TrEMBL record:
<dbReference type="GO" id="GO:1990002">
    <property type="term" value="F:methylglyoxal reductase (NADPH) (acetol producing) activity"/>
</dbReference>
<dbReference type="InterPro" id="IPR018211">
    <property type="entry name" value="ADH_Fe_CS"/>
</dbReference>
<dbReference type="InterPro" id="IPR056798">
    <property type="entry name" value="ADH_Fe_C"/>
</dbReference>
<dbReference type="Pfam" id="PF00465">
    <property type="entry name" value="Fe-ADH"/>
</dbReference>
<dbReference type="GO" id="GO:0046872">
    <property type="term" value="F:metal ion binding"/>
</dbReference>
<dbReference type="GO" id="GO:1990362">
    <property type="term" value="F:butanol dehydrogenase (NAD+) activity"/>
</dbReference>
<feature type="domain" description="Fe-containing alcohol dehydrogenase-like C-terminal">
    <location>
        <begin position="189"/>
        <end position="380"/>
    </location>
</feature>
<feature type="domain" description="Alcohol dehydrogenase iron-type/glycerol dehydrogenase GldA">
    <location>
        <begin position="9"/>
        <end position="175"/>
    </location>
</feature>
<dbReference type="GO" id="GO:0008106">
    <property type="term" value="F:alcohol dehydrogenase (NADP+) activity"/>
</dbReference>
<dbReference type="GO" id="GO:0005829">
    <property type="term" value="C:cytosol"/>
</dbReference>
<dbReference type="InterPro" id="IPR001670">
    <property type="entry name" value="ADH_Fe/GldA"/>
</dbReference>
<keyword id="KW-0560">Oxidoreductase</keyword>
<comment type="similarity">
    <text>Belongs to the iron-containing alcohol dehydrogenase family.</text>
</comment>
<dbReference type="Pfam" id="PF25137">
    <property type="entry name" value="ADH_Fe_C"/>
</dbReference>
<protein>
    <submittedName>
        <fullName>Iron-containing alcohol dehydrogenase</fullName>
    </submittedName>
</protein>
<dbReference type="InterPro" id="IPR044731">
    <property type="entry name" value="BDH-like"/>
</dbReference>
Length: 383
């Protein structure tokens, strides 16, 4: 029987002009740490909107959060936060910045200069500072989920941290902020959201028609509107992709269903080793992983073929194969590599295994049956 616990307390404010309401959401007595990335918010008007809305609130700024946020950078931000008596962290940017804001809120709360080991061992043991999110690039759903994916250069690791207490108090989602983004950023965002759905959907068949039906709708939306976003930059495309990306990883479609995430763990290792965009590590691995696990995933792959891709094929095995081909074609249409060689790198399988071992990620997949030798074979298939 289906069993799950689901609670998502993040308040969503969606639509054009919603950034102006951030002052209503941040406590009036808060000392705010504004966290952002490379500084695009200061050229596209978002920064000005935020500062106007916060009026004369005390705001400390920290910019320079990387595309794959580094722990060592956040250590600098945490020191400033503690020195200035910050009581609220506001992340303004894409998923990386919002991941960083959630993790930073926990780092500051520990009072430690180097809390990595404590947070890696039990992130739920820390009560983080409250945080909020203003999303400018949809992809990860980080604005309303409890997960932060953080890299450490010193440890040569990229791993996820999850704490329910770290969910943002609110998420402001203005699709018009996407209009200034580059093509590659938009491609990555749509594809990342697409893989998030697949890693919760293409697993073991269980009695979850609501979750599966919603997943199929999200996949159809991303398949239709992802390319339109790249081609037209219309406000409709921005709205649909931004909302679909949020729903892809806010906890709802994964409630009560087996989840995979093996592609993500392998992808994290590749990013840690080669610095490749997160979404592109997923597309270069996922089709081969699905082929490798075709027998175990055939039931859901066949459903995916018929319900999402509308493939008219009675044989489950053949339908599953065709679904993988369509998935690969979609990723390629979004200009993402579907082979490791297309990314221009030489990937050492042993280095990937070493990362997975170090991250304690040695039994992957919904069955926990993807071991080291399996990862080697998947990488060989994806070469």
């Amino acid at each position: 029987m289906m069993t799950f616990q689901l609670c998502n307390p993040t308040e969503i404010r969606f639509g054009k002009g919603q950034i102006a309401t951030v002052g209503d959401l941040v406590p009036t007595d808060a000392r705010i740490l504004l966290l952002y990335g490379g500084g695009s918010i200061k050229t596209n008007g978002v920064y000005d909107q935020v500062m106007t809305a916060l009026a004369d609130r005390p705001v400390e700024e920290f910019g320079g959060v990387e595309v794959n946020p580094y722990y060592e950078t956040l250590q600098q931000a945490a020191r400033i936060g503690r020195e200035k008596g910050v009581s609220f962290v506001l992340g303004v940017g894409g998923g990386s910045v919002i991941d960083a804001a959630k993790f930073l809120a926990a780092m500051i709360a520990t009072g430690l200069d180097d809390p990595w080991d404590r947070l890696a061992a039990d992130p739920g043991s820390v009560v983080p500072l409250p945080n909020g999110a203003i999303l400018t690039l949809p992809a990860t759903g980080s604005e309303s989920n409890p997960v932060s994916v953080i890299s450490s250069t010193v440890r040569s690791l990229k791993i996820p941290f999850a704490s329910q207490a770290a969910r943002p108090r609110f998420a402001i989602m203005d699709p018009t902020t996407m209009l200034s983004l580059g093509r590659r950023q938009l491609e990555n965002g749509a594809v990342d959201a697409f893989t998030h759905v697949l890693e919760q959907y293409l697993t073991l068949p269980v009695n979850a028609p609501v979750q599966y039906g919603f997943s199929e709708t999200l996949l159809k939306v991303l398949i239709e509107w992802g390319p339109k976003l790249i081609e037209t930059r219309s406000e409709e495309a921005c709205e649909n992709v931004m909302w679909a990306a949020n729903q892809a990883l806010n906890g709802l479609i994964g409630a009560g269903v087996p989840q995979d995430w093996s592609t993500h763990m392998i992808g994290h290792a590749i990013t840690a080793l080669h610095g490749i965009d997160h979404a592109r590590t997923l597309t270069m691995i996922m089709p081969s992983l699905l082929r490798y696990k075709l027998k175990d995933k055939s039931a859901m792959l066949a459903r995916y073929a018929r319900n999402v891709w509308e493939i008219d094929e009675r044989d489950d095995g053949r339908a599953a194969e065709l679904a993988i081909e369509r998935t690969e074609d979609f990723m390629a249409r979004m200009s993402c590599p579907v082979r490791i060689s297309q990314a221009g790198i030489e990937l050492d399988p042993q280095a990937v295994l070493d990362h997975l071992q170090h991250a304690n990620q040695t039994s992957l997949g919904e069955r926990a049956d993807i071991k080291g030798d399996d990862v080697r074979r998947i990488i060989a298939m994806a070469a």
